[in-house]
Amino acid sequence: MNQRQPMSGAGRPLRVGLLLPTGEGLMAGETPHWPDLLAMARRAEELGYDSLWVPDHFLMRFPGRTRPPRGTWDCWTLLAALAATTERIEIGSLVSSTTFRNPALLAWIANTVDDVSGGRLILGVGAGDAPLEHEALGVPYDRRASRFEEAIQIITSLLRDGTSTFDGTFYQTRDAELRPRGPRPSGPPIMIGTGTRGPRMLRLAARYGDMWNAWLAFGRSQPDAIPPLREAVDAACRDVGRDPATLARSVAVQVDYLGREEYPEGLAPLTGSPEDLAEQFRAFAHEGINHIQVVLRPTTLETIERLAPVLELLDRG
After folding, report:
1. What pLDDT band is residue 159 in, cutting at 50, 70 and 90?
2. How far is CA 240 from CA 79, 200, 290, in A?
3. Can you tell me the distance from the alpha carbon of 255 to that of 303, in angstroms, rounded to the nearest whole number?
4. Per-residue pLDDT averaged across 308-315, rounded?
5. Mean pLDDT rounded to a whole number for the chain
6. What are phi and psi of 225, to 5 degrees?
7. Does the keyword section mention Amino-acid biosynthesis (predicted)?
């Protein structure tokens, strides 16, 4: 089994990941199936992307819109398949809602996928952000931050220490032991997605996370969006007694290849030549971002290949 090896060149200022299109109609209007996703994943690995990311949704419904729901393939089934069919590239959930699965079960799943991958998993988790999806599945949506706070304690205890005894309002464990252990003594790194939510989720990310994440892809995917977010994350770290420099930072951004001249209000994706995009990626690194997840519009083999020159430019420093 191959252990994780660095994908990026020596000069690359930050890691660059690709969000795979796992839902209906997301592959330039077509619905991707496993052969499509495998081809994209392998091509991204060949081209030098640092990571592959899978969203965790089941049935997305859109308030106030007439379009039908959008179904997606299961996040953790796909991550297990990617773990077994790629060799060096990191894989991660962006992000897995702790409302969908018992947190102890999620720790077991992540531990197993990390072992299958040879230690390449990043466990991205969050509190969930789709009320109609939860309603459709019969999953509670209330008190999400409180549920997440209990869930993350169980997950981190099992993955990092191998044991958990917890008696909470929503979740309980008793003498749980994570056996056998995966390839890393402290388990996979844990990325906590908070977006632009309030101080409570930020403090939980600062207390329990190895990496923080914000989803900018449906808003302003620009480096100038980072400073206020960085200040809030730094403040949360100081609140819990943590050195802000020890918490890695990541953001999901949209790169638009559709060539539109105007965008809906609030949407500002990255556009331009490879040189333009490389400079914008460097600007994210200058703002303290260690890792970006790129949402290509559209996401096809062609657009995955079109980003390769950007990676080459970044590798030059």
Report:
1. very high
2. 32, 11, 22
3. 10
4. 98
5. 94
6. -80, -10
7. no
| CATH for 15-315 (3.30.450.40, 3.40.50.300, 3.20.20.30, 3.30.70.100) | 3.20.20.30
CA diameter of the chain: 58
- Looking at residue 193, its pLDDT comes to 97
Whether residue 98 contacts residue 148, with contact meaning beta carbons closer than 8 Å, is answered with yes
- Domain parsing of the chain, residue ranges: 15-315
**Res. 171: pLDDT tops 50:** yes
The whole-number pLDDT of residue 9 equals: 56
Nearest to 75 by CA among 119, 116, 35, 113: 113
Written as six digits, the tokens of 312 are: 């080459």
pLDDT value of position 67: 78
Q: Which residue has the tokens 């906590």?
A: 192
- Buried b / exposed e along 267-291 (16+ C-beta atoms within 10 A): ebbbbeebeebbebbbebbebbbbb
Q: What is the reported pLDDT for 196? A: 63
Buried b or exposed e, range 218-257, using 16+ CB within 10 angstroms = ebbbebebbeebbebbbebbeeeebebeebbbbbbbbbbb
Cα–Cα distance measured from residue 174 to residue 209, given in angstroms and rounded to the nearest whole number: 23
* CA proximity to 155, closest of 125, 195, 196, 194: 125
| Beta carbons of 87 and 128 less than 8 angstroms apart | no
Average pLDDT over every residue of 176-196: 94
- % of the chain exceeding 70 in pLDDT: 96
Distance between CA 266 and CA 119 in Å, rounded? 38
pLDDT at 5 over 50: no
Q: Which residues pair with 23 in a beta bridge?
A: 72
φ, ψ of residue 167 in degrees (nearest 5): -125, 95
How far from 228 is each of 102, 225, 234, CA to CA, in Å? Answer: 33, 7, 10
Return d(Cα 62, Cα 71) in angstroms, integer: 12
